[in-house]
């Protein structure tokens, strides 16, 4: 079912706006979730709990998975920071960009935002265009959340060697957004990918896209040094 949903979602994405042009996700009959309801839940959370949101996770289904597959780690590690998870399954860069411009970030001032987005664009747009979409989100978040530091995560290795090579081209392009202070970039490739189309066992679900619990544990472990450095920095 997960694989079917993913394939359907990228078919829809393939006909949508450019990666840097904001647009809401289109609700499809095959979606087992209501996208607009999830987006509105995030907006409501911002309105009600905004002052208490000190850590913001932004992204697609892989980020959303912290609420499910990675829940135990989330509750133990990130919830105490005052964390909110604004990952929505199926989202591409243009959808996250639209959400960031339409209520989800209104009057927020988290100390840190963890952004991981772009995998749902891969294969449907040129790598340079996807990098442009990711860059647009970073610029929008910097403008709307001027006191917030952004930890930009590279797109994770996915599916096979060919797809992973595309991902690495995108990651190389967006890595230049790292300014050593307010925006930092982290590529977690080596923690998940052995090379030659081989992925470390136990980290991915069978679709080689989404993560198992061990994958979320590896994400936390790999991100932790830079995460804590940014969180504890007073600059």
UniProtKB/TrEMBL annotation:
GO terms for molecular function: hydrolase activity. It comes from the Eukaryota. Keywords: Hydrolase, Signal. Belongs to the 'GDSL' lipolytic enzyme family. Platelet-activating factor acetylhydrolase IB beta/gamma subunits subfamily. Residues 57-217 form the SGNH hydrolase-type esterase domain. Residues 1-17 form the signal peptide. This is Platelet-activating factor acetylhydrolase IB subunit beta. InterPro entries: SGNH_hydro (IPR013830), SGNH_hydro_sf (IPR036514).
């Amino acid at each position: 079912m997960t694989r079917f949903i993913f394939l359907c979602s990228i078919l829809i994405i393939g006909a949508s706006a450019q990666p840097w042009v904001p647009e809401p996700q289109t609700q499809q009959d095959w979606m087992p979730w209501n996208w607009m309801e999830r987006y509105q839940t995030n907006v409501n959370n911002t309105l009600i709990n905004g002052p208490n949101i000190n850590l913001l996770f932004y992204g697609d289904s892989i980020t959303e998975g912290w609420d499910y597959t990675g829940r135990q780690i989330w509750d133990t590690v990130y919830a105490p920071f005052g964390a909110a998870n604004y990952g929505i399954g199926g989202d591409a860069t243009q959808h996250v960009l639209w959400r960031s411009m339409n209520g989800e970030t209104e009057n927020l001032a988290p100390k840190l935002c963890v952004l991981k987005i772009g995998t749902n664009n891969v294969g449907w747009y040129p790598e340079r265009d996807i990098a442009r979409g990711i860059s647009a989100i970073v610029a929008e978040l910097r403008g709307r959340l001027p006191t917030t530091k952004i930890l930009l995560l590279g797109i994770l290795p996915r599916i096979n060697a060919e797809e992973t090579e595309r991902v690495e081209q995108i990651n190389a392009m967006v890595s230049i957004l790292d300014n050593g202070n307010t925006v930092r970039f982290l590529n977690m490739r080596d923690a998940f990918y052995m090379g030659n189309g081989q992925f470390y066992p136990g980290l991915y679900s069978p679709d080689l896209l989404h993560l198992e619990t061990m994958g979320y544990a590896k994400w936390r472990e790999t991100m932790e040094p830079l995460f804590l450095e940014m969180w504890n920095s007073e600059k």
